[in-house]
Each structure stands twice: as C-alpha cells, then as structure tokens.
Write a structure and sequence with these properties.
Blueprint (H helix, E strand, L loop, with lengths): L11 H9 L12 E2 L11 H9 L14 H15 L10 E4 L2 H12 L7 E6 L3 H10 L2 E8 L5 E2 L6 H6 E7 L11 H14 L2 E5 L16 H7 L8 E6 H4 L8 E5 L1 H14 L5 H11 L3 H21 L13 E5 L4 H12 L1 E2 L1 E2 L16 E5 L4 H17 L2
Parallel strand pairs: 1-11, 3-4, 3-6, 6-7, 7-8
Antiparallel strand pairs: 2-9, 4-5, 8-9, 10-13, 12-13
Helix pairs in contact: 2-11, 3-11, 4-5, 4-10, 12-14
C-alpha cells in the first residue's frame, strides 16, 4: 500500500457524520433542513438534458483524452466572452476535465517533483482535495490563513521567502470557499511575481466564479488578471472551472482547465495514462451548457433571492456577511463550532458544517474555529425555514 494514504485526514463530511451521530433531531418533531453540503439543488437546464438524449449514440466509441474539438472551442469562446480576453488557443491552452475536483487533484501529480522536498501552498480554510493532492504527490502542504480583517482573503504577504523558495504548487480558490471573497488584481500581481521568482505553478480553482451576487460585477478571474498584467501566455498559471455550480450539473462531472500551454501539454500526457477522457454524452451536454447564459443568469437570481431572505433573518442575530460570490454564508458562532453544529441539529433539526472541519491549525490559529458554513443550496422555503430556526437557536443560546 502507498504509505502516504495514511497521511490523509478524514473528509469533512465523514467527521460530520461522527459528530452528529449522538444528536436526535427526530425528537424535535421538525423536518430536517440540510444546509451542510455544497451540492446544488436547482434544476439542471433542460438544454443539457436534451443534449444527453440526442447524443446517446456516442456511447459506442472511445472518447479522445484531449476532448472534443468543438467543446474545447466552446470553452475557449466562453472564457473570451466572460473575461473580455483574447480566446485561449483551444488546441494548446484548453482541456475538458471530468469535473474540477479530479483535475485539481491530478494537477499536483503532474507538476510536483516528489524528490525535491517541495511545498504545496493552500488557502486556509480550504478544499480538502488540495491537501490530499499534495500529500499523495509527495509534497508537504503549507496553509496560509484567511485574514478576517480583509474579507477572509488569504494573507499571502505573511508567507516567508523561505516557504516560497520551496513551493512547487500554489492553490488559489477564487472566489473563496467558504467566505466567497474575490482576490484583487494586486494580489494576483504579487503571486505572479513570486511564481516567476521561485518557479512554481499557480492552480486557480474558480468553480464559484458564476455564482456572483452583483450582476454588474462579475469576479475577476486568474486568466483575466494575467492578461491585465501583460501575461498573455498565462505562464505558470492554470485555471479550473466546472458546470457543477454554474449550471447545476454536479452529477455530470464536467469542467475544464485552461492556461499555460506548456503545463497543459504535460497535464495531457498525465491524463493519457490516468484514463479521464470525457464521454460523448457528457461532451454534448457540456457543449450545450457552456454556450448558454440564460440559465446561468436565472440561477444567480435564485441565489440572490435566498441570500436576501436569509440575511434579513440572520443578520440581526449573527455575525455574518453577504459574500461576493458563492452560495455559502460563513457565520460566527457564540461557542465552539463543532458543539454548536451538534446542538443546532439536536434542538432545531438544521444541519450545517463546522468551520474548523474545513481548516487546519497554522501558526497557532484555526481560521474556521467558532464559525459555521451554511450552504444555501436547498429551495428558498427550506433556506428561510432553516434561517428562522438558526435565529431561534441563537436567541436561546446567546
């Protein structure tokens, strides 16, 4: 067995199941409201469903690892329209992937030299795939705490030159999970300069980029920042996105990676052996989804309605802010976040996720401590009901 498997920590939801095993929400007589998992619950777009039906004949052939040329071209066009940049070369700078999760894991296996004693730098709180990818690639994760005084953006300036010198890969989550803040251009400039100086790759996880709450201010993306800073070749940068959140298609397992052509070429080589080609059926649905924005705008409007309704209820009783982009609230708890989560389920039949479960202690601080992540993925009525119960719980447990 690979000894590095022993380094992996339980996934947050496995820890959550154990934590909540002794809660008894049934005794409340209330129906469960589950706001713990970031799994979109809105309807999948009909155009994607119809594309699947129309493409079933495509199951009879092996798909290309590089992806269908039409899909690569559609993704390139979407990137150009969304970020107002010259379209990336669909032949060398774009690869379809089976959801951003598998690609975010696989990129570490591609770029990390396991014999070099390298570091993989991660935001903290973070998506646990970053940590697992680093460990299984033979590197050591290094966590950069979110700064609560700066909208929970990662405090990249706190990282020492010695750490950057050992860094082989930097994961950026933009917009961030869980606080939903967007990294400004000046931070991108700093990271690009550090990547050039210390020779590391930046992997920008942008799966929440299309769930922004101000229609006039779409989040700045990594490729867009690169172009703005004169890095039209996207050197040292690869950007990841997905249809899971944008188009409510988490079960489709479809996304893309785009950026530096040299990195993409090596990534394609890895994926040739990894066995992660996208089927014709998924390709057809993906092509339909990337070429339509109407369902995406409607999706954002639904989330806005939920944030408006829920924050009106929770704002007076909790320290909680409206995010720039994402479907989460990152709320402060009056006592230990794990105990709060247990008590909330036990007394109000509402399930959330402890903030400390998506964070690690770094420099003596766990930035998720005494916070919970609330996923507003359920229907509006359920989110409102959950918010009312949380507010009642807060009133009774100040």
């Amino acid at each position: 067995m690979n000894p590095r498997l022993e380094l992996l920590q339980p996934y947050p939801f496995e820890k959550l199941r154990k934590l909540l095993a002794t809660a008894n929400p049934q005794a409340t007589g209330l129906p469960l409201v589950d706001l713990s998992i970031g799994e979109p619950k809105h309807d999948a777009p009909e155009l994607a469903k119809q594309a699947i039906v129309n493409s079933l004949a495509g199951l009879s052939g092996y798909p290309p690892t590089k992806g269908d040329p039409a899909l690569r071209t559609a993704i390139s066009g979407w990137l150009a329209n969304r970020y107002r940049i010259k379209a990336p070369d669909p032949e060398t700078q774009v690869l379809p992937v089976l959801g951003s999760r598998e690609a975010l894991f696989a990129i570490a296996q591609t770029v990390v030299d396991p014999n070099a004693g390298g570091l993989v730098v991660c935001p903290n709180p973070f998506y646990q795939i970053y940590e697992g990818a680093a460990l299984l690639a033979g590197a050591e994760p290094f966590y950069v705490n979110a700064d609560p005084t700066n909208h929970f953006l990662s405090d990249w300036r706190s990282v020492s030159p010695a750490v950057w010198h050992r860094t082989q890969l930097l994961y950026v989550c933009n917009p961030g999970n869980p606080a939903g803040s967007v990294m400004p251009l000046e931070d991108w400039q700093m990271l690009f300069e550090l990547a050039d100086e210390h020779d590391f790759v930046i992997a920008s996880d942008e799966c929440y980029s299309e769930i922004y709450l101000d229609e006039s201010q779409p989040p700045l993306g990594g490729l867009q920042a690169a172009v703005a800073l004169g890095r039209d070749d996207f050197r040292r940068l690869v950007s990841f996105s997905s249809l899971s959140k944008r188009s409510n298609l988490p079960g489709l397992r479809s996304g893309f990676v785009a950026g530096d052509a040299q990195i993409i070429a090596k990534f394609l080589l890895y994926r040739t052996y990894h066995g992660s080609a996208m089927s014709g059926v998924v390709t057809a649905a993906s092509l339909a989804a990337w070429q339509d924005e109407e369902h995406v705008r409607a999706n954002r409007q639904t989330y806005r309605e939920k944030f408006d309704a829920v924050l009106e209820i929770l704002g007076p009783v909790m320290d909680v802010q409206r995010p720039q982009a994402s479907f989460y609230l990152w709320a402060r708890t009056p006592y230990d976040d794990a105990k709060f989560t247990h008590d909330l389920l036990d007394q109000q039949a509402v399930k959330v996720l402890p903030g400390s479960y998506v964070s690690r202690t770094a420099d003596g601080i766990n930035p998720g401590e005494n916070r919970i992540r609330i996923a507003l993925v359920a229907p509006l009525a359920d989110c409102v009901e959950g918010a009312k119960r949380i507010a009642s719980f807060m009133t009774n447990n100040p």
